[in-house]
Design a protein that fits this description.
By secondary structure, the protein is mainly alpha-helical. About 75% of the residues lie in helices and about 0% in strands.
């Protein structure tokens, strides 16, 4: 399936925006960190924000695009437990917030597929 040449840049923009948000408003992300993870939630919030910024940079550069796209797909799978935790934690919140939390769950699959498609079509250039 052909993809737009802008597709990697759009995903990079999404990841960069999310990465900046982790630093600009960390408290909202801290609450999504599963308690089973060691250390402080803020550390995980900042670490995941930094990873998102690094992935965005990798996707923006044709030379590192394929590797960054594969890493992005893995990242989207890896953060899925945080989205599940949010959906469970928000189950008693007002309907719009609950719908937002639940709506994020099925969106992970298209993100994974988007990243994989970029990897498939965006070979690393030496």
């Amino acid at each position: 399936m052909p993809r737009s040449p802008r597709s990697p840049l759009l995903l990079a923009g999404l990841l960069a925006t999310a990465g900046v948000a982790h630093f600009a408003a960390p408290r909202s992300f801290d609450a999504t960190i599963p308690q089973a993870l060691p250390g402080k939630p803020r550390t995980w919030t900042y670490a995941s924000g930094a990873v998102e910024l690094a992935l965005a940079a990798g996707l923006a550069l044709p030379r590192t695009r394929r590797t960054a796209a594969l890493a992005s797909a893995a990242f989207f799978v890896g953060v899925f437990p945080a989205n599940i935790k949010t959906a469970v934690d928000w189950r008693h919140r007002p309907a719009p917030l609950k719908a937002t939390a639940l709506g994020r769950l099925p969106l992970q699959l298209p993100l994974v597929l988007w990243a994989r498609n970029i990897a498939k079509n965006g070979e690393d250039q030496a």
